[in-house]
Amino acid sequence: MADAAKGAFAEVSEGQSDASLTGGCQCGAVRYLITGTLHISYACHCRECQKQSASGFGISVPVKRAHFAVSGPLQIWSRQTDSGSVTDCYFCPQCGTRVYHAGSGRAEWVTVKGGSLDRPDALQPAAHIWIRSRQRWFDLPDHVPHWETQPRDEAEWKRMVGWDE
Ligand SMILES: [Zn+2]
Ligand SMILES: [Zn+2]
């Protein structure tokens, strides 16, 4: 890990509990640390997530910006969303791994790409969204909430991921 990375990690590691999560890109140049205790993920089957992951669906881990420390040679590709906001997509320029997204619509949050976690099975998706465009070979798990497209508003998002705040 680069020296800059160690510094960033040391800063947020204080008071770090077992609940923290680590991860990084495929080549290891980008590393991150997620602190705080409330960690969930959801799977998104929209075409954008299929493209960005080059796979069947994307895994999103919403994290408050204050609980996210990242280091490494990140680059940004930005895209307009259907709702009119801009999503900045951070990726490693060395290996191309998409690491996290930050949207202008929800400034205090970032969305970490769950497949980049060191232990990706630490989180089981709490919901599946945009199942309208899911790959036909994918069978939805029983008893996991799902949406044809996505939750309509902030309150519904919070219910989906189990937040009552
Ligand atoms: Zn990399
Ligand atoms: Zn998506």
Layout of helices and strands, plus pairs?
Elements: H1 3-13, E1 21-24, E2 31-34, E3 42-44, H2 47-53, E4 58-64, E5 68-71, E6 75-80, E7 86-91, E8 98-103, E9 109-113, E10 128-129, H3 154-161
Parallel strand pairs: 3-10
Antiparallel strand pairs: 1-2, 2-5, 3-4, 4-9, 6-7, 7-8, 8-9
This protein binds zinc ion (2 copies).
State the gist of this model.
The protein is of the alpha+beta class and 165 residues long.
Structure report:
Helices cover 16% and strands 28% of the residues. It has 165 residues and is of the alpha+beta class. The protein has one domain: Beta Complex (Metal Binding Protein, Guanine Nucleotide Exchange Factor, Chain A). The strands form 2 sheets. Strands 6-7-8-9-4-3-10 form a 7-stranded mixed sheet. The radius of gyration is 16 Å and the shape is globular. The chain starts with a helix and ends with a helix. Mean pLDDT is 86; it is low at 1-17. Bound molecules: zinc ion (2 copies). One zinc ion (ZN) binds at residues 25-27, 29-30, 92, 94-95, 97. Residues 25-27, 29-30, 92, 94-95, 97 line the site of one zinc ion.
Order of helices and strands: HEEEHEEEEEEEH
Rg for CA atoms: 16 Å
Q: Which molecules are bound besides the chains?
A: zinc ion
Number of helices: 3
Give the class from helix and strand content and strand pairing: alpha+beta
Number of E strands? 10
What is the 3D shape? globular
Mean pLDDT: 86
Strand content: 25-35%
Supply the CATH class.
Mainly Beta
Distance between the termini: 36 Å
- How many separate domains make up the residues? 1
Helix content: 10-25%
CATH architectural type: Beta Complex
Main sheet strand line-up: 6-7-8-9-4-3-10
How is the CATH topology named? Metal Binding Protein, Guanine Nucleotide Exchange Factor, Chain A
Largest sheet: 7 strands, mixed
